[in-house]
Write a sequence for this structure.
């Protein structure tokens, strides 16, 4: 049986989570926002590919041995050269073979969820300067009452326990809605589907993962590509439903 081990870029990931934690949350005030019936949904910001986390972030920040524990786990993974495999690339190849498009999927799911709640939806294609951040300026779409800005911070699979099992889907997103007339922020929230413990903030919209899509180690995950894709589809669907519910 093949063993999949990947080295996680800890510094970059910690920076991303810290940036996420610093962004303010603003619940939607439907009465105060005025009449919003038509929403222009911008092209979402999405990372270039999926990630796999081995659970290095499950140690609390206050844990006295956090640095030692994390570095030891990373060292153990990196020293086993014979089995060291780029598992993120492996998952990326699986998703590519199954024609999984995270950006298109999120857009489809969010639009469908919004229509289901009675909103009219307009596609607003945009070119983003960088992923992981909201737009600095918004285009002008005459028929839109508001714009929805979607940012995917991370998606893929992670090991909640550390050491290999179980692996479950992960999706971390931020959502912002702005007034089309003056670009004032009407709502800003964070939505996490089974996200890493280090990313948990008390104001996050948290969604528990479906136990059906928990894999007993990386070999099990990689050997079941249809289920792996299905698990991510479930994460995107549930997250989109939660996003639309924020606009009730």
């Amino acid at each position: 049986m093949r063993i999949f081990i990947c080295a996680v870029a800890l510094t970059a990931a910690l920076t991303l989570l810290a940036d996420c934690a610093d962004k303010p949350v603003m619940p939607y005030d439907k009465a105060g926002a005025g009449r919003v019936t038509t929403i222009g949904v911008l092209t979402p910001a999405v990372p270039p590919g999926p990630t796999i986390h081995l659970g290095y972030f499950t140690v609390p920040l206050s844990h006295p041995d956090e640095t030692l524990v994390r570095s030891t786990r990373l060292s153990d993974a990196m020293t086993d050269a014979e089995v060291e495999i780029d598992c993120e690339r492996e998952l990326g190849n699986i998703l590519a073979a199954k024609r999984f498009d995270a950006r298109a999927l999120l857009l489809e799911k969010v639009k469908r969820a919004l229509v289901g709640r009675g909103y009219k939806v307009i596609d607003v294609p945009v070119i983003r300067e960088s992923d992981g951040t909201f737009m600095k300026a918004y285009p002008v779409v005459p028929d839109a009452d508001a714009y929805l800005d979607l940012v995917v911070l991370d998606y893929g699979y992670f090991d909640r326990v550390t050491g290999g099992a179980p692996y479950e889907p992960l999706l971390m997103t931020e959502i912002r809605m702005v007034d089309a007339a003056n670009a004032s922020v009407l709502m800003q929230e964070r939505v996490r589907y089974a996200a890493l413990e280090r990313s948990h903030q008390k104001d996050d919209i948290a969604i528990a993962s479906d136990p059906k899509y928990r894999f007993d180690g990386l070999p099990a995950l990689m050997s079941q590509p249809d289920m792996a894709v299905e698990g991510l589809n479930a994460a995107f669907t549930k997250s989109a439903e939660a996003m639309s519910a924020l606009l009730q």
